[in-house]
Design brief:
8-stranded mixed beta sheet; alpha/beta; globular
């Protein structure tokens, strides 16, 4: 990972030059190979410890030995922009939500209200009790923008519908709402987010998932929509007329959405979904990133680092983006579907795709962030969203930024967290760019 257990001053000693050079080599290697190189150099990666060491620096440059300029032990600074009433409300909801019976019985309670056609009553109870407002910025785009504009940080407006439907009118309605979100975000929010599953019948995503294994990512760069459909259609049995039409409509909707993204200069995230959709989503991301990310990272892909395969996927995407000279936008998260993924793996008798331990997930995340931070600092065509609520991952990134100043952070490095979280970064940097 980024912060290794070597005091910074030892990097200056001649007898440690080999290790310093190894560190620089480590982060120029693919993410999936970093751990092996670190072991070869006899450098222990940081395993969830307090961070008091400096990261590697580019070859030929002296490491910055100054102490960090921020003090994360000062809670008054961290929370100075939050009203006491808001903190008390957040604390109550956090405590209430932490009881197992709340999460265990909530779906049943919602189902009962839905069957009794009392969802409006349940919604009003949640809204006026403050629970709804704790988790959701608003029930319309304008309301969400009014609320978030009062906060001391930038906003990501998410309209993450993912329900599968064959009704083109519903899908076009979702597309229009996403376009409206981009239009209203102009100048008021820097990012929006959506799920590809909300713009199509999930059947075509599942079909893509089967076929793309035989279509290398490098082969789809620069292709037209018609060429992409042809490549998918010629892999295995020909697509049915319905699936071919559905794929064409999905590509058309995505084209319209991303055209508006670039026009309004409001970047957009493609949210991650479950593994049985995710490889297809990765494929579609690279197809459109090569088209729209030529000048900047307007489209970001989400990489779930709790997956065993993600480091290798990210390595491959970075290489293709470098080879074909376009920006890779990476939003790095740990992941959110662990129970569902493991249940499906058990029922379908295939290997668990999630890392076996929490420590493995931490190491996977920190290693990826390390490599991407270094690329950003060097000015490579990479943009990074550190989407994490983990203090140590955030602190490691902040340590890196402090120790390795770079003009490229301003446009290509961001921290992001759910609005319900009061993060330590809010006392140091505005959430958004550093």
């Amino acid at each position: 990972s980024l912060i290794c257990q070597i005091p910074a001053r030892t990097l200056l000693q001649s007898r440690s030059n080999r290790k310093r050079n190894m560190l620089t080599r480590v982060f120029r290697k693919p993410i999936s190979q970093n751990r092996k190189l670190l072991r070869n150099a006899r450098i222990a990666p940081m395993i969830r410890t307090n961070i008091n060491f400096k990261p590697a620096v580019p070859a030929g440059e002296e490491p910055n030995l100054e102490e960090p300029k921020f003090d994360l032990s000062d809670s008054s600074k961290i929370y100075q922009r939050v009203k006491t009433s808001q903190l008390l409300s957040d604390l109550f909801i956090l405590k209430f939500s932490s009881y197992n019976w709340v999460s265990d019985y909530s779906p049943s309670i919602v189902n009962i209200f839905e069957k009794m056609r009392l969802m409006r009553l349940l919604y009003n109870v949640c809204k006026f009790s403050g629970i709804y407002g704790h988790f959701v910025a608003g029930d319309t785009v304008s309301t969400a923008l009014d609320i978030t504009s009062q906060r001391p940080f930038k906003s990501i407006l998410c309209y993450s519908v993912e329900k599968s439907t064959t009704d083109d009118k519903e899908l076009d309605k979702t597309l229009q709402l996403l376009i409206d979100t981009i239009e209203m975000s102009d100048g008021r929010a820097d990012f929006t987010a959506f799920k590809i599953g909300g713009l199509t019948d999930h059947a075509i995503v599942l079909e893509l998932q089967k076929r793309i294994k035989n279509i290398p990512v490098a082969d789809i760069v620069g292709k037209s929509n018609e060429e992409y459909i042809s490549m998918v259609n010629n892999t295995g049995e020909p697509l049915s007329d319905y699936l071919k039409s559905t794929l064409a409509k999905l590509l058309e909707r995505l084209d319209i959405l991303f055209t508006n993204t670039v026009k309004k200069q409001v970047a957009i995230f493609i949210d991650a979904e479950q593994t049985w959709y995710q490889e297809a989503i990765h494929h579609l991301y690279m197809f459109f990133a090569s088209r729209y990310n030529t000048e900047n990272s307007w489209i970001y892909n989400t990489y779930q680092l709790y997956m065993k395969s993600t480091s290798e996927t990210l390595d491959g995407h970075l290489q293709v983006a470098k080879d074909y000279n376009f920006f890779l936008g990476a939003k790095c998260v740990r992941g959110a579907y662990m129970e569902e993924e493991r249940k499906e793996a058990l029922e379908q008798s295939y290997p668990d795709p999630i890392h076996d331990t929490l420590e493995d997930t931490h190491n996977s995340y920190d290693t990826a962030i390390t490599s991407l931070l270094l690329k950003v600092s060097y000015g490579e065509k990479v943009s990074l969203i550190i989407a994490s609520h983990n203090d140590q991952s955030i602190m490691a990134a902040m340590e890196f930024v402090e120790a390795n100043p770079s003009p490229f952070y301003k446009k290509h490095l961001f921290f992001a967290q759910l609005m319900v979280s009061v993060s330590k970064t809010q006392g140091i940097y505005s959430l958004g760019n550093v």
